[in-house]
Write a structure and sequence with these properties.
Helicase, Ruva Protein, domain 3; five-stranded antiparallel β-sheet; 51% helix; binds calcium ion
C-alpha cells in the first residue's frame, strides 16, 4: 500500500519546493519594489499654521492696516454714532424734536471732510493796501449803484425804519456776496454736521450752530437739506451763520418767512436789524482820523475789536483825534497800512465796532466803510460812476470773426 505511492510523494516535494521558491522570489521582488518607491506624500512636513507667509517683495507695507486695527469692527454709520445720538437726545429733550426724525435726517447727511482742511489753513494777514482792491474797486462800485437803483424804494424804507445809513446796507452785501452772486453751494446740513462732529477744535461752536440751524429750519417749516451756503454754513446774500439768521433775520414783507436768499426786503431788514442790535447809531461817524505819539499806543493795536476806552482816555496812550469830536465817545484805535511802509491811524467809533461784529477784522470793516462811501458818492453823482468795462476780445476770437466775414463775402459772390 505504502510502496504503491512513491511517485506522488516525490511530486508533492517538488511542488512544495517550487512554491517556496516562488514565495521567496515574490518576497524579494516586494522588498526591491519598496526600496525604489517614492516617499509617501503624506509624510511631508507641513508649514505651521501660525507661521506667516513671506511678503511679496513689492508689498505696500504702509497701506496695510496694523494687525490689531484689522481686527476692529467697522465704525458705526454717522447717524448711529454715540456722539450724534447724544446730540439727538439733547435736542429731543430740550427742544422737543422727534429723535427718530432727526436720526433719519442725520442718515441723509453727506459728510464733507474736505472743508476741515479749509478751516485749518493758516490765516494770512495782508496789509490793507493789498486787501482793499479786492473789495473797493470800480466793478463793485458800479454793481453797488446798480443794486441801489434796482431796489431804491425798498432800501430807503428799510434804512428809514431801522435807522441805518442805506450805503452801509448796500456795501456790506457787496463785500459779502457781490449782491447775491456768491452765496455758497454747500448743503448747510452737511457742512455743519461735519464740523460739529469731526472737527474737535471747534465742535462746541459748530454744534451750537447746528442746533440753531435745526431750530431755524423747523420754525421756517423748511427741509434742512434745502439750505445752501458757504463751507462754514453761512447763508444767503448777507451770509448769516445759523445763530445770526435765527436771532436777527427779519420778515420785512410779512409773508411768514425770513428769506435771506431771495427776498430783498427780508435781506435788507435782516442786515439793518443786525447792525442796530450791535449798536449802530444813525448819523454818527464810523471813523475819525487819528494822530499818535510815542510807542504807548502799540498794545492798543493788538486789541482792536473792543471798545474799552473813551477818546479822552486814549490820550494817555498818545492817541488823539485829528478832528473835533462831539462828546467823548468810546473808540478803538485802527492802524491800517495804506501803502508799503505807510500806516494811517483811525479811531473806530460805535458804528465801526458794529461792522466788526459782522466780521471780526479791521480790514473788513474798513473795506465796507470805504465801499459804502464810494457807492454813495457815485449814487449821488453819476459822473463818478466807473464806466462799464469793455468785454475783452481775445486775438483768436478776432481772427475767427474776420474769417467768418470773409466766408460770408465769398458766399455772396
Ligand atoms: Ca418774508
Amino acid at each position: 500500500m505504502s510502496g504503491a505511492r512513491p511517485k506522488p510523494a516525490r511530486r508533492q516535494d517538488r511542488m512544495e519546493t517550487v512554491l517556496r521558491l516562488v514565495a521567496f522570489l515574490l518576497a524579494l521582488a516586494a522588498l526591491c519594489a519598496q526600496a525604489d518607491s517614492p516617499p509617501d506624500q503624506t509624510a511631508q512636513p507641513v508649514p505651521q499654521q501660525d507661521e506667516a507667509p513671506a511678503l511679496p517683495v513689492d508689498a505696500d507695507i504702509d497701506s496695510m492696516p496694523p494687525a490689531d486695527e484689522a481686527q476692529l469692527p467697522p465704525p458705526p454709520p454717522f447717524a448711529e454714532r454715540a456722539d450724534v445720538q447724544a446730540f439727538v437726545d439733547e435736542l429731543a429733550l430740550q427742544h422737543g424734536f422727534n429723535p427718530l426724525v432727526l436720526t433719519e435726517q442725520f442718515r441723509q447727511v453727506d459728510l464733507r471732510p474736505n472743508i476741515l482742511a479749509i478751516f485749518d489753513r493758516p490765516s494770512t494777514s495782508r496789509p490793507y493796501y493789498q486787501f482793499r482792491p479786492d473789495f473797493v474797486n470800480p466793478t463793485r462800485i458800479r454793481l453797488g449803484v446798480e443794486f441801489w437803483h434796482s431796489h431804491a424804494e425798498l432800501i430807503a424804507a428799510v434804512a428809514e425804519q431801522y435807522g441805518v445809513e442805506p450805503e452801509y446796507l448796500v456795501s456790506i452785501l457787496g463785500v459779502e456776496t457781490l449782491w447775491g452772486r456768491n452765496t455758497g453751494k454747500f448743503r448747510v446740513m452737511d457742512v455743519l454736521s461735519t464740523a460739529a462732529f469731526d472737527y474737535p477744535r471747534r465742535a462746541d461752536f459748530f454744534r451750537s450752530e447746528l442746533r440753531e440751524f435745526l431750530l431755524l429750519a423747523r420754525e421756517e417749516g423748511s427741509d434742512p437739506f434745502g439750505f445752501r451756503g458757504s463751507y462754514a454754513g453761512a447763508m444767503g446774500m448777507p451770509q448769516f451763520m445759523p445763530s445770526s439768521y435765527h436771532r436777527f433775520a427779519q420778515d420785512w414783507d410779512g409773508d411768514g418767512h425770513r428769506d435771506i436768499r431771495d427776498n430783498t426786503g427780508d435781506i435788507l431788514a435782516s442786515v439793518a436789524n443786525y447792525f442796530v442790535a450791535h449798536g449802530w447809531a444813525k448819523g454818527q461817524p464810523v471813523l475819525l482820523p487819528a494822530q499818535v505819539e510815542g510807542e504807548a499806543w502799540q498794545p492798543l493795536a493788538a486789541d482792536k475789536f473792543n471798545l474799552h476806552y473813551r477818546i479822552s482816555e486814549l490820550a494817555a496812550f498818545g492817541v488823539r483825534s485829528a478832528v473835533a469830536v462831539e462828546g467823548d465817545p468810546l473808540a478803538v484805535l485802527a492802524p491800517l497800512e495804506s501803502a508799503p511802509g505807510v500806516t494811517d491811524f483811525w479811531l473806530g467809533l460805535g458804528n465801526f465796532y458794529a461792522l466788526t461784529r459782522y466780521n471780526r477784522s479791521t480790514l473788513y470793516a474798513m473795506a465796507v466803510h470805504e465801499l459804502a462811501l464810494a457807492i454813495k458818492a457815485a449814487w449821488l453823482d453819476p459822473s463818478l460812476l466807473p464806466p462799464k468795462p469793455q468785454p475783452v476780445v481775445r486775438k483768436a476770437n478776432k481772427r475767427k470773426a474776420k474769417q467768418a466775414v470773409k466766408r460770408k463775402k465769398v458766399r455772396r459772390k
